[in-house]
């Protein structure tokens, strides 16, 4: 994407408006999936066309968290209606055998969750992770319940360490620090904004990797005196690493 955008910017036959139109299509298709080109992505596309660096990952992750919460709630309600228990086996069995009765509208790029899971839980898939089109239907693309129950034994907290470079620049280390600390993510929805809590330490705690007692996480947008909670959440997210 970066290479294509650079080529369009250097092409004399492509003006700035066409470049913005291309970026708007790309954002609406792959970053913030939407049936149409959303008006909310136009300011982002304009800044990208002008070479402004914008952090898209926090907003994308917020949309994934939102849809995963919606998916979990919908499956639990469906299991409750069918009088199934709340165990992982019953939820998986209901989702696989009777999923046709569950109608859920999800917009986030959930294929990224598959790549995340395959890199950290190798037993879930014997093949290397690959980006799949989440709009395609795969009849036999299911994971057995046994693998779901036992995959925690092979959990990899940092699967990309082995292939990382020996030297890290300052911006890379700063971005990595943002990924390790608690914060709130600001997401973009059609005509509105929202926030989702980001608690990365909980992942390590579930697999015995936590070495400290986690304290209470305070979120800035809960303060009633804050006029713009989304700006406060973003300011808290990008605060200095030394704080």
Automatic annotation (TrEMBL):
Source organism superkingdom: Eukaryota
Biological processes annotated in GO: meristem maintenance
Residue ranges occupied by any Aminotransferase-like plant mobile domain in the UniProt entry: 14-239
InterPro entries for the chain: AminoTfrase-like_pln_mobile, MAIN-like
Protein name as catalogued: Protein MAIN-LIKE 2-like
Organism, scientific name: Senna tora
């Amino acid at each position: 994407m970066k290479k294509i955008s650079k080529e369009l910017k250097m092409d004399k036959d492509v003006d700035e408006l066409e470049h913005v139109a291309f970026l708007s299509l790309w954002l609406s298709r792959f970053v913030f999936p939407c049936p149409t080109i959303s008006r909310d992505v136009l300011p982002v596309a304009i800044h990208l066309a002008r070479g402004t660096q914008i952090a898209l990952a926090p907003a994308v992750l917020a949309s994934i968290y939102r849809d995963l919460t919606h998916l979990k709630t919908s499956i639990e309600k469906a299991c409750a209606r069918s009088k199934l228990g709340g165990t992982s086996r019953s939820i998986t069995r209901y989702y696989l055998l009777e999923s046709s009765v569950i109608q859920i509208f999800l917009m986030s790029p959930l294929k990224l969750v598959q790549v995340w899971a395959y890199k950290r839980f190798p037993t879930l898939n014997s093949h290397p992770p690959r980006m799949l089109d989440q709009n395609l239907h795969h009849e036999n693309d299911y994971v057995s319940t046994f693998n779901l129950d036992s995959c925690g034994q092979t959990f990899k907290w940092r699967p990309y360490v082995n292939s990382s470079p020996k030297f890290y620049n300052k911006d890379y280390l700063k971005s990595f620090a943002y990924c390790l600390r608690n914060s709130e993510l600001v997401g973009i929805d059609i005509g509105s904004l929202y926030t989702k809590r980001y608690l990365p330490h909980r992942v390590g705690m579930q697999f015995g990797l936590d070495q400290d007692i986690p304290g209470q996480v305070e979120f800035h947008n809960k303060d009633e005196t804050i006029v713009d909670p989304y700006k406060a959440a973003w300011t808290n997210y990008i605060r200095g690493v030394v704080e």
